Prior knowledge:
Helix content is 67%, strand content 0%. By secondary structure, the protein is mainly alpha-helical. It has a single domain, classed as N-utilizing Substance Protein B Homolog, Chain A. It is globular and about 40 Å long.
Amino acid sequence: MKEYSRNKLQELTANAIYVVLTYRHMGEDVDVEGILSSLFECDYSEVPLYAKAVVVATLRHYGEEVALLEKNMRRWKFERLNRVEQAILLLSLSNFFYNEEKPDKKVVISVAVNLAHQYLDASDYKFVNAILDKVLVRDA
């Protein structure tokens, strides 16, 4: 099984979520196994568990994650965001709320900001940072 750095793993997982969102937007069936196998360039059985879990959590909790994001976005609707931004935000929420490792809020935001710097316009990272800072709160 191929080893991935944490950053590369999260980047590929964000790409998988982007592809899933694109298929859904087009009204096409989503083949999660095919998408992950293609992006990770291996058989699905060798795709890292982290990627599988986060993509499945994103699909399973999509509605509630979108509702949580929209509740904290002033005058914005989730669907108005570009799909890359959507994918980064959904990756962050699924990782934070549904990852058994329970990553630290600062780490999740840092990953999201790095992805935003890499894939979005220059100042879009500020929006990603601000939204995630509001929504990533653990229940006591």
